[in-house]
Amino acid sequence: MNEVAEGVVSFIRLTDEHPLPPAAATRDVLKALRKHLDATVPHWRDRVFESGEGRDAVEVEVHLQSGRVVRGALVQQPSVGSRRD
């Protein structure tokens, strides 16, 4: 989980250097964060649930340089019995 947290911090630093548009939708900010984690932390989606803490989701709060705060689910564990088609 520490690697994932470090990946989130590196994303925040990256957005300080290369700000996202101030009006970027929350969905777009979270998508950019997930893409950054995909590139920097292999298998991060699996790792966040390996701790055995029984969490169903990982929520984040990102403070953008513009002063805007973005909150949302970074990743959710699939429901039992659900499947992707």
Structure, described:
By secondary structure, the protein is of the alpha+beta class. It has one domain (about 1-75). Helix content is about 40%, strand content about 20%. It is built from 3 helices and 2 strands. The chain has helices at about 1-15, 25-40, 45; strands at about 55-65, 70-75. A two-stranded antiparallel ribbon has the order 1-2. A hairpin with a 5-residue loop joins strand 1 and strand 2. Helix 1 (about 1-15) crosses helix 2. It is globular.
Question: Which features characterize this protein?
Answer:
85 residues, alpha+beta, two-stranded antiparallel ribbon, 3 helices
Shape: globular
**Count, helices:** 3
Mean pLDDT: 85
Distance between the termini: 29 Å
Low-confidence spans: none
> What is the total domain count?
1
Main beta-sheet annotation: 2 strands, antiparallel
Oligomeric state of shown chains: single chain
Cα-based radius of gyration, to the nearest Å: 14 Å
Strand content: 15-25%
Helix content: 40-55%
Structural category is alpha+beta
Give a brief rundown of this model.
The protein is an alpha+beta fold and 85 residues long. The protein is built from three helices and two strands, in the order αααββ.
Helices and strands in order:
Elements: H1 2-17, H2 26-40, H3 44-47, E1 57-63, E2 69-76
